[in-house]
């Protein structure tokens, strides 16, 4: 029913109608929608930048919502994608810099509360040298990793030129995918919401897989450190 309603009237109504659609699809709170309405591309770039630094913010939602706005003729989808890409790359580089210059200090001071100790950091750096590119690129598509991948890349001394390459690729592709999803499917909400749900489920499985791999690596690191201590 909602789908038919949107198909018939989406392009014949003004901005208030688009807001109703976004709210009905739960693609934004009144505050988030007001940000897009008031600040447009700046809101998209700033929101995604904030999330990429490591501060919780619905970055994925704001890109899709802005894409829907663009589909209704209130924004340019090209500039939505450009703004999202700029926010993602800028925020991640800030997160990388924080990790590079302060990550070790933070983990050495507070890591004990999550059972991370200085001797683990050397092994983590070795792990990041082998898999850092994949984590940075695919992390853009997984909510938790999207917030923290850049910080841990900096903490584990991933070379900046390598980081910025995979970070930019991930950020641009992610912005294109979610911006176009909102733009193309904004008037077909059931399909849009189904795709977003599927992507979310895939992200959860990827996150579970990464957590299992990290747990196994962490157990091996602890066992290796324990054996070395015993031999010494």
Low-confidence stretches: 1-13
Q: What overall geometry do the principal axes of the alpha carbons give?
A: globular
Number of helices: 10
> What would the average pLDDT be, to the nearest integer?
75
Gyration radius, rounded? 20 Å
Number of strands: 0
- Helix residue percentage: over 70%
Structural class estimated from helices and strands: mainly alpha
Number of domains: 1
Strand content: under 5%
Q: Which series of helices and strands comes N to C? A: HHHHHHHHHH
Straight-line distance between termini = 72 Å
Q: Describe the biggest sheet?
A: none
Could you explain the architecture of this structure?
- The N and C termini lie far apart (72 Å).
- With 232 residues, this protein is mainly alpha-helical.
- It contains 10 helices and no strands.
- The chain is 83% helix and 0% strand.
- The protein has helices spanning 2-9, 15-24, 30-39, 41-53, 59-71, 77-110, 118-139, 143-155, 160-185, 189-231.
- Helix 4 packs parallel to helix 6, helix 5 runs antiparallel to helix 6 (77-110) and helix 5 packs across helix 9 (160-185).
- The chain is globular, with a radius of gyration of 20 Å.
- It has one domain (2-231).
